[in-house]
């Protein structure tokens, strides 16, 4: 065993030497081991020849990306994402909506008006539900069977955009662990790259302090998931009106960051032809947060104390809690 290990390691210097020689000889290929080598000027020139981003739904969903939409229960994640799916399908795209939340009857009622008229969906929009009696074959994992089935659906429909509602149910309620989340997201990323499709996954958030701005860290299992996707946006509830929602981007890779702390998109929930978000304006997120009570302040100071005992810096505590580093220092002085 040790002899074999030593033999395998002995080839690495030879490989490195070959790569170095390739660079020195200005080899035609710019691939060096794990990396792609370019001058900064060449990188800019290549990027300039690439097409500009194509937005499928406002600036929230960009073509060819893996996107996550997250929010607390009952804020309208499914409503907004189905609205996006309808809009995208109306533009001529073939769209799959994997619905693990609503029964067919619930879906029918949501898209039927008060006078009993069913909303006419685009013919290129497909709703996908679980086949209740099907189980994964013994020789394949649940994740593998899911990805295999989704791939077959993409093949038979020619789908270009896929919505998944939601990751929690897809991973059997265990998406806070790397074991459950990473294989699914990695498999979806492989599908995205192989088929050139867009994927939007819906997810829950951690327990949110409604007195502070929503952050990427509030995404359930954020450190694992955020690194594996291109863009993330969230939905918050306005403290000024229970029917108001605001949308904020918390991660953008290649697209436009339009909705941030100082400029969130404001919506009201309406039902005419179907239940949907109606844009009514823009505002600062702080205008829609709950005012701090003395009890809230005490709870936040306690949370900060616990984080500090865990070795978290004042700056990081402030970032996580949506306050300045100076405010954190004052908490510890009182």
UniProtKB/TrEMBL annotation:
SUPFAM superfamilies: P-loop containing nucleoside triphosphate hydrolases. Gene3D superfamilies: P-loop containing nucleotide triphosphate hydrolases. This is LuxR family transcriptional regulator. It comes from Niabella ginsenosidivorans.
């Amino acid at each position: 065993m040790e002899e074999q290990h030593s033999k395998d390691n002995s080839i690495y210097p030879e490989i490195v030497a070959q790569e170095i020689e390739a660079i020195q000889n200005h080899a035609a290929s710019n691939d060096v081991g794990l990396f792609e080598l370019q001058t900064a000027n060449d990188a800019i020139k290549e990027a300039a020849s690439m097409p500009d981003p194509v937005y499928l739904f406002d600036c929230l969903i960009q073509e060819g990306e893996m996107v996550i939409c997250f929010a607390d229960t009952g804020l309208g994640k499914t409503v907004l994402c189905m609205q996006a799916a309808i809009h995208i399908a109306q533009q001529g795209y073939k769209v799959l909506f994997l619905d693990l939340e609503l029964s067919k009857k619930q879906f029918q009622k949501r898209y039927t008006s008060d006078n009993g008229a069913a909303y006419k969906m685009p013919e290129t929009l497909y709703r996908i539900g679980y086949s209740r009696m099907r189980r994964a074959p013994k020789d394949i994992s649940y994740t593998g069977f899911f990805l295999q089935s989704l791939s077959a659906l993409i093949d038979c429909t020619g789908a270009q955009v896929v919505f998944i509602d939601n990751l929690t149910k897809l991973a059997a309620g265990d998406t806070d662990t790397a074991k459950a989340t990473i294989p699914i997201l990695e498999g979806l990323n492989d599908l995205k790259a192989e088929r050139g499709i867009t994927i939007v996954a819906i997810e829950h958030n951690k327990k949110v302090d409604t007195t502070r701005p929503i952050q990427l860290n509030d995404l359930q299992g954020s450190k694992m998931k955020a690194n594996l996707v291109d863009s993330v946006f969230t939905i918050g509830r306005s403290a000024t009106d229970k029917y108001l929602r605001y949308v904020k981007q918390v991660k953008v890779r290649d697209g436009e960051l339009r909705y941030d702390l100082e400029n969130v998109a404001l919506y009201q929930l309406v039902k005419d032809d179907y239940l949907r978000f109606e844009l009514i304006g823009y505002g600062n997120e702080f205008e829609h947060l709950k005012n701090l009570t003395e009890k809230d302040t005490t709870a936040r100071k306690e949370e900060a104390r616990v984080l500090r005992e865990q070795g978290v810096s004042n700056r990081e505590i402030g970032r996580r809690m949506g306050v300045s580093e100076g405010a954190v220092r004052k908490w510890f002085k009182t």
